[in-house]
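Dear U.,

Please find below the material for section 3 of the report. The protein was modelled together with zinc ion; I have listed the sequence and SMILES used, followed by the predicted complex structure.
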Amino acid sequence: MLATVIIRSRAAAVAASGKIAFRTRSEEEILDDGYKWRKYGKKSVKNSPNPRNYYRCSTEGCSVKKRVERDKDDANYVVTMYEGVHNHASPGTVYYASQDPASGRFFVTGTHHLAP
Ligand SMILES: [Zn+2]
């Protein structure tokens, strides 16, 4: 059974480690998370046919990074990992996520942009 949690915008990145990973079933590799990102790197992944892409938040002075790659076990899924906490106003995106108790991983089940 999945426990459902609602992660609100900036809180999404505030895991104790400052890292959070999402595994999302998606054809698009770039999920609309409300922030603007700049690609700065690409690396091939051992034992995986899919490259890993690196992005940095495009807001000046913000050091949040994300990594995006297709799940090597199931290419229908995209794994997105965020590192750090945005130091600027969040766009008010709410993530609806479920945590798989077996792996501890979060699954995004939807996003919702709050009205300003
Ligand atoms: Zn940022």
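For the text of the report, you could mention the following: DSSP finds no helices and eight strands in the chain.

Regards,
Y.
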